[in-house]
Amino acid sequence: MNEALKLKRATYHLWTFTVSKLISAFGAQVYAFAISFYILQATGSATSFAANLICNILPRTLAAPFAGYIVDNYSRKKVVVFSQIATTLAIGGLLLVSFTSGLSLTAIYTTSCVLSLTSVFSGVAFTSSITGLVDKQRIQKAMSLNQMSISFASIGSPAVGGLLYGAVSMSTFLIIYMAASSMAVILESTMNFKLYTSHDLVEEDEKEPLWQSMKSGFIYIKTQSLLMTVIWIALLVNFLFGAYEVGYSFILIEKLKMASQQFGLTEGAFAAGMLLLSIYYSVRKEVKYPLLVSKWGIIGMGVVMTALVLPLMLKFPNHSIFVYYIVLQLGLGAASIITNTPIMVILQKQIDDRFKGRVFSILETMAMALMPLGMVLYGFLYDVFPAQWIMIVSAALFVGVILVLARPSVIRKVHPEIGAGKAVRIKKVPSNV
User: What CATH homologous superfamily does 3-194+209-415 map to?
Assistant: First the structure.
């Protein structure tokens, strides 16, 4: 295939990939909104809500290393398509249960576990395939368009979920998700995942045993200072962000008694903040010092975490609380893109294509490893202690972790050109001697 045809095909991938993500993400997030609201209203317990979050986190944490092995050794396209088919079947199973015996927490938790497993295989395969789907010059554009599609879905789905919740049955939410997932299967099956790939599928006799392959991935990571830094930040920051994951819904729904429509709109504001920054990154040139930019993004997230609990501590006019949380969620969405996009682009370019599945799966595992513990811990803490103090202490630790792990000496190690630039400027200062 000549270069012009490859570029045309890559452009097709950009938009097919974006539309596929938009459709599947919209269905997934409408479903997630409805299920979360259903659990909180049915039980009134932060612990039950946290248990569903754990079912979304724990299986993917345990399965991620195996997903990396599969993605590096088998067809990435087949992994993506089969995972999406499995998602469709899982939702179909829950729909059948709702018709026959009614929804129960057990059925919801089981479905959440299955969806968690399919998402990790699909997510690792897609992330590892970006450099095979599009040319290098448009990797940041691809990552940004991907995030934009998720953001569009995040903006619309909570609003749709909030308006529909209580007006239609839970079966309707499940049917929407099934239809969206089926359309995503069709789109993904038309993509060429090896358009720009630098290596062919590993032959059967060349495949490493599972544990040896995982070991090779860890050895590769240890040689990359950027990867080691990102892993430690992801491990601790994601654990502490559990305070926000559990606390946000608990505070707004249980403590402030916010209506489902308003809550849905605040969730949509988070996606709007992500969307605005994703559009910005899709048109601007590549970030020069991604770890430094991500550091400030995480600090911004810590500030938002602290601000979340102010309405519990200060008297706010009733009409202003909704607007306040809209603004906060816009800021948090923007900060999350500032944190994630620059790092993901540089990782796409620096990681050897033969190791991408294992590396991204290990990053996924480390990012999620302490989150189930965090969900359990914070679910218990919010049921026992005042929410404002839990969030303030967690936010302080959140910011403290990034200040230590991404201290100036670490930043200079990952981006030595920062130190070199300072040295040049010092050298140019004329001497008075």
Answer: MFS general substrate transporter like domains (1.20.1250.20)
